[in-house]
From TrEMBL:
GO terms for cellular component: cell outer membrane; efflux pump complex. GO terms for molecular function: efflux transmembrane transporter activity; porin activity. It comes from the Bacteria. Its main location: membrane. This is Transporter. It comes from Desulfotomaculum copahuensis.
Length: 386
């Protein structure tokens, strides 16, 4: 009896060891993202392509879409393997060959499984591109927020210095109450702007970290190098070609078109009494609406690229002017023709122009990504961030 008890508890102990090993392995998996984040905190930047990969691995909808696509393919293969074709039924010299009801339903099942597989494949591809596009958007949002905070800090420091100087002059009777109140209002506005900028950073990081599967409060280091490159792909394609490609790629259009085909097939063989001309017309109308919607979206995205590039060109000109103004302010300050406040203001204006230029550049990539998403060519990443 003691030997039996010993063996029993020995087996239980082995099971507990196995369970402990399994739980420990699970905990290790949970902390892997944190470990990666710790490496990032040492200064190794996260490239945009790395962020996209992390987002795709963390996207539960994408994982489910992959499983759905695999299941749809299995369903089609099974239906195709079990489809033997039509068995004609002789009904008379005027219509000698009419498929029986079972063959018609088998044909419809084959069509449905085929369409289902193709539709799930399109959905999977579209979701991958959408994840890439959203990652790019959130990635740039963090960069823009960090740059905006830097300018907000300098603006707050400048407002603080101006208020302190005005306060000292007011104590000596050399500044009016109105001037002091104006300086205090400017300082309050700068403090509020800095607080908003910090809040924008928190929100931007939270959105990106949620997408990447990281802790919402994490601060991964991003690759801040970005340069504008004219993409030959978008220059070579015209609006009509973009629309046609988007229509061919759209899951919604494909689904609507599939419904038209299946409804028409059922109506043609007239094996299902409750499916008639009305259902076919409804399916055709839904298809036309899907085509119209995708067409409008594509045209808007196509034009958005041109507008974004024009906005970037204007931002570049404004930045050049701000840089020249700052250089002039430096020269004037050295010769006593400009105050320290004038110099700081010119510097701040230059940095703000730089932020607007970066935001305009990000807008180009966002616009390109949106059109690429519709066309099914994958979101176009900036070369030096990929």
């Amino acid at each position: 009896m003691n030997a039996v008890n010993y063996c029993f508890w020995q087996k239980q102990g082995d099971k507990m060891k196995q369970l402990g090993f399994f739980l420990g392995f699970c905990v290790l998996l949970l902390f892997l993202p944190a470990a990666c984040l710790a490496d990032n905190a040492t200064g190794q930047p996260v490239s945009l392509s790395q962020a996209v990969q992390m987002a795709q691995q963390n996207n539960i909808n994408l994982i489910m879409a992959q499983n759905t696509n695999q299941q749809a393919q299995k369903t089609y293969n099974y239906t195709s393997d079990n489809f033997s074709g039509f068995t004609p039924v002789t009904t008379g010299p005027s219509n000698p060959y009419v498929p029986n009801a079972g063959d018609v339903q088998s044909q419809i099942n084959l069509m449905q499984s085929n369409y289902g597989w193709q539709e799930s494949s399109k959905n999977l591809s579209y979701l991958k591109d959408a994840t890439t596009f959203q990652t790019m958007y959130d990635y740039f949002a963090v960069q823009d927020a960090l740059e905006a905070e830097s300018v907000a800090e300098k603006s707050q420091q400048q407002a603080q210095v101006a208020y302190n100087n005005t306060l000292a002059l007011h104590a000596q009777g050399m500044a009016t109450d109105a001037q002091l109140e104006a300086a205090k209002a400017a300082l309050d506005g700068a403090n509020s702007g800095l607080a908003n900028a910090k809040n924008d950073i928190d929100n931007a990081y939270t959105a990106l970290n949620t997408l990447l599967g990281l802790d919402p409060h994490a601060r991964p280091v991003l690759n801040t190098q970005v340069a504008y490159q004219k993409d030959d792909f978008f220059k070579a394609i015209n609006q009509d070609a973009a629309v046609n490609r988007a229509l061919a790629n759209s899951p919604a259009v494909f689904q609507a078109q599939s419904n038209v085909s299946i409804t028409n097939q059922t109506r043609y063989y007239n094996q299902v009494p409750d499916v008639g001309p009305l259902q076919y017309l409804q399916a055709q109308n839904a298809y036309n609406q899907a085509v119209q919607q995708v067409t409008q979206q594509t045209i808007s995205a196509f034009l958005a690229i041109d507008n974004a590039e024009k906005g970037y060109a204007a931002a570049q000109k404004a930045l050049t002017a701000a840089e020249m103004a700052y250089k002039n302010a430096q020269v004037n300050y050295r010769v006593g023709m400009a105050t320290k406040q004038d110099l700081l203001t010119a510097q701040l204006n230059q940095e703000q122009a730089g932020i607007k230029c970066a935001q305009a550049l990000h807008g180009i990539f966002d616009a390109r990504g949106q059109l690429a998403l519709l066309m099914g060519v994958g979101a176009i990443l900036p070369a030096n961030l990929s």
